[in-house]
Every structure is written in structure tokens, then in C-alpha cells.
Amino acid sequence: MTTVEKFLNGIAREKPIRFSPQDIARFTHNYSKRLGSGGFGVVYKGELPNGTVPVAVKVLTGSLNKTVEEQFMAEVGTIGRTYHVNLVRLYGFCFHATVRALVYEYMENGSLDKYLFHKDRKIEWGTLHKIAIGTAKGIRYLHEECQQMIIHYDIKPANILLDADFSPKVADFGLAKLLSRRNTHVSITRGRGTPGYAAPEMWMPAPVTYKCDVYSFGMLLFEIVGRRRHFDESLGQSQRWFPRWVWEKFETAQLGGVASVCGIREEDREKAERMCKVALWCVQYQPEERPPMSKVVKMLEGEMEIAPPLNPFQHLLTSGAAIANWSDSGTGSTATAPAWHESPNEDSMPPLRMHEIELVSSS
């Protein structure tokens, strides 16, 4: 019995349904409507047997090597065990010698990147603000609310899908890892994530935490505010790297200028400035200086004051700054890092010692 078959037998008691190759052909009307393709394979539109539930069927192509096995098991083993309004739903899968496929809910408006980076796609600022909050809630659920913590590792606009009402759902769990609540650190054997969105520690030979997703979400926030890629070589030197430019505007008390340049209306500028400040906290170089997603949600929704961010790019000039204690009530007149570097379930988990850090297996 193969590694994947053992894994699928173990997950048979969970939510996703195992479909046959005949089921997949029937759902997709013999693969008649192609939605897109990539290195992983091809996505087809289909519908479940009752004819009323549209689905997107990702059919994996190529040989079944170790990487493909790991990604297949990551998808089924993470998103297949969860349900949240801001996570794409996995209805089931097919693992057969002739067909390997994943059956998801169909998302009518595609991925967020098309609305941020393509000028022909229009989307209201208020909708973008809701997308930011909904995405944050989806990641909060992965980190803090589901039975086992899930680190996504690849948060970016292309992996945020939008339904008919433009409600966001986090998708593509091919790199995700399940962690027990006692293990907040995970060792990775190769680079994960997408350059530009992946946290700095992802490229270092040391264990990483769920805070790598917080960093990626910060980069996503910058792109939502700017409706542009976080790095655009076609722009002038000062605005080329958007996060650094936002920091410079914040540092000189000109954050309102960011909203103006980005074409955000006056009535939405307070929300935009709030998003910029949250993004600056999320992309802090030191993982422990980044807030957990529960606090990110509160800050975005205006339920929590935002302390003045530290310079996320200080490490480019000198060594890091000291970390101070966080106070929920105080914002302070100087920029010090709040003590939100605890585990997201700190009430139930004792402090983790270095010798307790374990390699988390995907099987």
C-alpha cells in the first residue's frame, strides 16, 4: 500500500468524499469546460450529481512524485478537515491510477489578483476592505480556531478566491502543514511559499512559526491598498517597493498621501491608513513582533487601537530593535513592539522550550 493510500484510508472518517474516476468524468461532463491550468494540472468546471451545486475540479497531471504526493495529502489533510465561511470548501477527491483530482466549491469571481493587477477589472474600495477582513478571519481560523493549527505557507492574492458576492475564501493548501497545539514551530526541509510574499525566515535554516502567514498577509494588505504589486520595477525609485514607500510616508506623518496616490476617496482614507499600519506590523522582520491574526482582525475592524509600528526595514540598515511589553490600552508616544509574540492559544499551552521543537511530518 502506498503512502498516499495509507493516508487516505486514515482520513476516510473525515469530511471529504472519495470519488471514482467515473464520478469525476460525470461531474465535469467529460472534462468539457476548462477554467484554467498551471504547473499542477488543469481545472474544469462541473457540478455535483444533483445538478445544483457547481464545482471546480482540479485534475493533477504528470507523474506522482514525492512533491505531488505531499501536496495532494496537504490539500486533503488540511482543508478537507475544516469548514469556515472564509476557506474554500473541499467536497472530495479522487486518487486512482488514472485520475488524481480535487473537487472544490466553485468560486464565480475567480482570484483576487485579477482585480488588483488588471486595469480592466473594477472593484469598489469598500469591497476590498471587506475582502481584507474576511481573508484575515480565514487565516485566524487556521491558526487559532480549528482543532489543529494549520500553517498555510502561501498567502497571496492568487490564492484568495472570490464567490458571487465577492466574499473571500483562502485556497490552495498544497504547501500547508497541520500542527498539534503543543508544537508552534516547524522545521522545513526546502523553501516554501512565493518569493516576495514569503517571510524572511522561510529562507533560513531555522524552525518557523505561524507568523510566516502573518507576514504574507501583510504583503497582501499592501497590494489591496495600492491595487498594485508590492514591487513594480516600472515605477520611480521611491515608489518601486510599495511597503518601504508606505513606511517612509508613515514615518514623516504623510500616510494620507498614500491613499491620495492610490485613488482612495476621502471617506475611505481612515480605513486605508489603518490597513497600512496593520500591514507594517504584519511585515516586521522579527516574527515575534508580528501580531497574531486575532489581533489583526480587531485592528482592521477598528475594535483595537493600533500602536505606532516599528520600522520593518530597520534590519536593512542595522541590527534589530528591542521588544517591549504590550499593553492593550496604551498606544504610547514611542514606537515599541507590543508583546503579541505569544502562541495564538497561549491560554492553553505552556511555554515551549527549545528541546521541545519538533519536526512536523506531513503524514
UniProtKB/TrEMBL annotation:
* Recorded topology in the membrane: Single-pass type I membrane protein
**What does the UniProt keyword field contain?**
ATP-binding, Glycoprotein, Kinase, Membrane, Nucleotide-binding, Serine/threonine-protein kinase, Signal, Transferase, Transmembrane, Transmembrane helix
Q: Where in the cell is it found?
A: Membrane
Name the species this protein comes from: Elaeis guineensis var. tenera (Oil palm)
Return the Polar residues bias intervals: 327-336
Q: Which family does the UniProt entry place this protein in?
A: Belongs to the protein kinase superfamily.
Q: Which residues form the Protein kinase domain?
A: 29-314
Q: Where does ATP bind?
A: K58
| PANTHER family for this protein | RUST RESISTANCE KINASE LR10-RELATED
Tell me the SUPFAM superfamilies matching this sequence: Protein kinase-like (PK-like)
> What's the protein called, per UniProt?
Rust resistance kinase Lr10-like
Q: Which GO terms describe its molecular function?
A: ATP binding; protein serine/threonine kinase activity
Instruction: Report the InterPro entries cross-referenced here.
Output: Kinase-like_dom_sf, LRK10/LRL21-25-like, Prot_kinase_dom, Protein_kinase_ATP_BS, Ser-Thr/Tyr_kinase_cat_dom, Ser/Thr_kinase_AS
Q: Does the keyword Glycoprotein apply?
A: yes
Name a Pfam family for this protein.
Answer: PK_Tyr_Ser-Thr
Q: What is the lineage of its organism?
A: Eukaryota, Viridiplantae, Streptophyta, Embryophyta, Tracheophyta
**Positions of region (Disordered):** 327-350
